[in-house]
Amino acid sequence: MAPTHVAARTLDTVARSRVPVPHPEHLVHLQFRRFAGCPVCNLHLRSFVDRLADVEAAGIHEVVVFHSTAETLRTYTADLPLDVIADPGRVLYREFGVEHGPRALLDPRGWPAIARAVRHELRAVRRGVRPAPPTVPEGGRLGLPADFLIAPDGRVLAAKHGAHVDDQWSVDELLALVPVGGEHRA
Q1: For 63-91, how does the pLDDT look when each residue is reduced to its tens digit (9 = 90+)?
Q2: For residue 86, which phi and psi values (nearest 5 degrees)?
Q3: In which band, very low, low, confident or very high, does the pLDDT at 51 lie, cut at 50, 70 and 90?
Q4: Among 35, 64, 97, 121, which lies 20 to 30 A Cα-Cα from 75?
């Protein structure tokens, strides 16, 4: 079960900086992804990077959590202009009710995204842009995505627990959740 309110905390990023959640001046889009190097996660995050100006203009700060170690994540996320958090013990995953299980990969609705993401990653690996995804990822392949939109006062304004590997908010879906007129301000 997802929390309705998030207690203030400061998280350490893999880039060795710190980020407050909730953020005192911005909405926080807290994304839970799978493992470092996950092709579907990478493709999804690249869509957010491509539209980061739109996300930031809406007053949203991106924070992305993976169930991999910081050391491994640095290999795959060094070029992402997002706050990336390592949670190999899945402490945050448990707190936010984020699940893992076979349906992550077995649900046919996720298969087109898997095929698209693998093609995209293979091209990037061949060009030397990114390292190949791990053959045996830390924490396994069966994580499910989840998204939370958190107000500066800690209220969870919206939440989504994914039913399969590609069941997460798009940029447009996230932007549609932003309260009109700055009502989210603490």
Answers
A1: 999 999 999 999 888 889 999 999 999 99
A2: -90, 130
A3: very high
A4: 97
